[in-house]
Every structure is written in C-alpha cells, then in structure tokens.
Automatic annotation (TrEMBL):
Compartment(s) where it occurs, according to its Swiss-Prot or TrEMBL record: Membrane
Predominant location category: membrane
Membrane as UniProt keyword: yes
Name the record gives this protein: Signal transduction histidine-protein kinase ArlS
Enzyme category, top tier: transferase
Organism: Lactobacillus helveticus (strain DPC 4571)
GO molecular function, one term: phosphorelay sensor kinase activity
Length: 522
C-alpha cells in the first residue's frame, strides 16, 4: 500500500513538469521585462528630466543676467524698471506686444520666451527672503540654501515639480543682492512618464501572456513524447514480455533519437529474455535424453550390472559418451547465446580474411588427410579486412568445412573459395555429398534441426552448428545461404560487407582503447 502511494506521488510530481517549466519560463520572462522596463523608464525619465532642468536653467540664467546689473539689494523699485515693458505687461497679464512697441523691440526681449511658459512660475526674493515680484498664479516659496544654485524635485498631488534656486550677485560689486526661485510644473514630463508607465505595464502583461502561452505550447510539445516514453516504460516494467513500443514521433530531433534508442533497448532486452527462455527450454529438452541414458545405466549397475564386467564396461563407456555429448551440447548452446550478443562483446573487431581462410583450410587439411581440401583465393587481395572477430570467422569456416566433411560420400573433396566484389567479401564451401532437399534447405538453420538422411546422431552433432553459423553471420550484418542438389552435394556461401582501410584503422584504434582496462587488470 505504501509503495503504491509513493508511486502515485511520483506520478503527481512528473505530471507537474509542464507547470514547473512554464512557471520558470514565465518567471524568467517577467523578471526580464521588469528589468528592461525599469531600465527604459529610467533612461527616458533621465533624458526628459534633463530637458526640464535645462528649461528651468534657461529661465534662471535669463533672470539672473538681467538682475545682476543692479548694484544694490533687489527691491521692487529697482527690479521692475530692469524689466522690459513687454515683460512687465506679461507679469501683469497683459499682451506681450503693445501697439506702442515696435516689432523688433517686442521680439528681442529675451525674457518673453522664458517666463511666458505656463509651466514656469518665477519669483525674485531679496536678501531677507521677502518677495520682490512673481509671475503666474502660484508663487514659488523661498527656502535658504548654501549653494550658489540648487535643483530640487518635489512631489505635489501625484506630480513631480522641479524647483530651481539661484543666488543673484551684482556684476558691479559682486555682492549678494537677492534670490531667484523658479518652479517648473513639468506637465509634459509627468504626462509622458505616466503614459510610458501605463504603456509598459500593458505591453509587459500582453507580452508575458503571449510568451507564457507560447512556452506552454512548446513545453507541452516536448513533454508529450516524454509522457509517451514514460507510459511505455511503465508497461514494459509491469510486463517484461510486453510488445509496447514508442510510436514514431516524426520530429527529427533529439527526442526522436531518444525514442528510437529506447525502442532498440527494449527490443534488445526482450531479445535477451527470449534467448534466456529459449536457452533454458533447449537445455531442458536436449539434456533430458543423455541424462536419462546415464541414469538408466547407473540404475542397472546398482541393481545387478556391477557384478558383470562386460555390462559394467558397456555402461561406463555409454555414460562417458553421453556425458561428452552433453558437454559439447552445452558449449554449443553457450556459443549460440554469445553469438546473439556480438555487438556488445566484439563491437570493434577487424580480421584479415586472406590469412584466416588460408590458416583454417591448412589446419583442417592436416587434421583430415583422407580429404582433399582445395583453396582458391586468387580473387581475394591479401589486405582484405572485414568487421568480425577472428575467432568467429575461424569458427564459421570450421563449422562449414566440418559439415561438408561429415556429409560427404564417395568423392572426398571439399572446395573452398574466397573472392572480392566492390562492396562484399564472399566465401564459398562446396562439398559433393548427399545434398539437401529444397524443403530441408529452409529449415537447416533452425536450432536442433537435423535432416533425416544426413543429420543423424550416428554422424555426430546436435543440430546447432548451422544455427550458430547463421546467428554469427547475422550479428555481423552478413548473409549465409545454401544451394544444394540431392545426391550431388551442397554449396554454402558467406557474404560480409567490405570495410575501407580508413574504417578498419578506426575500428582497430577503438578496439585497442577498449582493451586498455583489461590489460591493466591483467
């Protein structure tokens, strides 16, 4: 019960993968947009504020230039006359241009452009902080300050206001005569920053929603095949014999490669399970007879045969013969099982075909002097190499030549030939024996299959030789075939893909590297 609960909790965690990924993406995008918006807002704010400061400074500079010509402390009596008639009319709320003024005089007044801005409120104070004059409806308040000039940002009614303070020194005697205070309402600045803030918030929200939806689609597209893989893995875990596989994703990316690899792994795992079952079944089936024979002889000896020397000798010989057959049978079955795992045990082996064929034929010719074993390898270059473990190529040749010798009749001759085409290496073993019927040719590579006329126990063998040969050739991506005519003989043909010298060198190097740990252990 606890295990089931744990599994459910794990599945719940796995099911929230999309939520977690989308949350991370959303958080990343949100933080990025916030940082970007803050940076842009600050840049725009700084530039706009600089413009407003420059505007206030122009007003202060213009007033200061006009008032600095007064030698005494600023008072209404000396400040107002210093201003032009047009400026006085503006301060009184009258038109800047009078019929009495010439056009040139009106437009040459520098103060007009400065103090006619509705955002600008100016005030002049004397040394005691008493107001001398002001424009507009709101008079900027004075407060003492130590610097010659000072800028101050204040917030009123939710709006930023820029206050600029300036000390006025007489250009005649360089004495402090009063103060200028300019208040800039910064209507454009406040409106701009408010609209910018609203726009950025709206754009950020829309962008975040769009990116979250997009990321959800993308993440879901990635997680969906992962869920398929997980489902298949759970089915196979529940039933190792299950044929469940990941369907083709049609993505042409890493997930497609992963799905293909998992399917191949599951196929191999199931193949190993089938091999194990078949091995156990074959062993139990094939060992039953020799074990029964040995058991029968031992029972007979126990009852009465041990007192009869002849029966004792026959029973011991028969038991040893069956034990030897069991030994060979087990070895062949192990060879067959190993042949199905070539790509794991011998992934980088390379063998010279010319040397191997020549050596095996010479050895078997010496072992069987009553047979004429001919070798024709004129069409095979001496440097021809294929990807196979040399022991397995030798085993294949031994199986086929031994098979040819075993089932030869009157003509004790075996022909072995090896040749090369553009892309393949061909090895042919031909005998002139009993031959194989067309019906039996389809079955001779099956496990424990024996042709009634030729593959009897009297001639030896367990019916595994050709099965081992077929599995070895198939594991090395080759082909084995047979052509036979009853009463005339058989011809077995091995075909292997030819490898280039460059690939052979690469495989040899990989093989040397993979053998380094083994040599160190030895």
């Amino acid at each position: 019960m606890k295990t089931m609960t744990k599994n459910k909790n794990k599945e719940t965690k796995h099911s929230s993968l999309i939520v977690r990924w989308v949350s991370i993406v959303a958080l990343t995008i949100t933080v990025s947009f916030v940082i970007f918006s803050v940076v842009v807002y600050q840049i725009v704010s700084r530039q706009s504020l600089d413009q407003q400061e420059e505007m206030s400074l122009n007003v202060v500079t213009t007033l200061n230039r006009t008032l600095s010509s007064i030698p005494d402390e600023l008072e209404i009596s000396n400040v107002i006359p210093s201003l032009s008639p047009a400026t006085r009319r503006i301060l009184k709320g009258e038109p800047a241009i009078s019929d009495k003024d010439s056009t040139n005089n009106a437009f040459s007044d520098n103060l007009i452009a400065s103090i006619s801005n509705p955002d600008i409120n100016s005030a002049v104070y004397n040394k005691h902080g008493e107001i001398v004059f002001t424009n507009g409806n709101v008079t900027p308040k004075f407060k003492s300050f130590k610097e010659v000039s000072k800028n101050e940002l204040v917030k009123r009614n939710g709006h930023q206001i820029l206050l600029t303070y300036q000390k006025v020194y007489s250009s005649v005697n360089n004495k402090l005569t009063g103060y200028i205070v300019v208040s800039n309402n910064m209507t454009y600045y406040n409106s701009l920053m408010k609209n910018l803030l609203h726009s950025m918030v709206a754009i950020s929200i829309i962008a975040i929603v769009v990116f979250v939806v997009t990321s959800y689609i993308l993440v879901f597209n990635v997680v969906k095949p992962i869920k398929r893989m997980s489902k298949v893995a759970q089915e196979v875990n529940a039933d190792p014999n299950s044929g469940a596989r990941i369907k083709e994703l049609n993505r042409d990316d890493e997930l497609e490669n992963l799905a293909t690899s998992i399917n191949q792994m599951l196929d191999r795992m199931q193949s190993y399970i089938e091999q194990q079952k078949q091995f156990v079944g074959d062993v139990s089936h094939e060992l039953r007879t020799p074990v029964a024979v040995i058991e029968g002889h031992l029972n007979m000896l126990e009852r009465w045969g041990k007192d009869d020397p002849q029966i004792l000798d026959e029973s011991i010989k028969a038991s040893l013969q069956e034990a030897d057959r069991m030994k060979h049978l087990i070895q062949e079955m192990l060879d067959l099982t190993r042949a199905e795992q070539i790509d794991v045990q011998y992934p980088h082996e390379v063998t010279n075909v010319y040397d191997t064929v020549k050596r095996v034929v010479a050895d078997l010719a010496m072992v069987h002097p009553d047979f004429e074993i001919r070798l024709d390898e004129d069409d095979l270059p001496q440097d021809t190499e294929i990807q196979i473990y040399h022991g397995h190529l030798e085993q294949l040749l031994v199986i086929l030549i031994d098979n040819a010798i075993k089932y030869s009749t009157n003509l004790k001759q075996i022909n072995v030939s090896a040749g090369l085409t553009k892309k393949e290496v061909n090895i042919i073993v031909q005998d002139f024996g009993e031959g194989i019927s067309k019906e039996d040719q389809k079955k001779i590579f099956n496990r424990f299959y024996r042709v009634d006329k030729a593959r009897t126990r009297e001639k030896g063998g367990n019916g595994l030789g050709l099965s081992i040969a077929h599995k070895l050739v198939d594991s090395y991506h080759g082909e084995i075939s047979v052509e036979s005519v009853e009463g005339q003989g058989s011809q077995f043909k091995l075909t292997f893909p030819l490898i280039s010298k460059k690939k052979a060198a690469k495989l040899k190097k990989l093989n040397e590297n993979s053998e380094l740990p083994k040599s160190n252990l030895e």
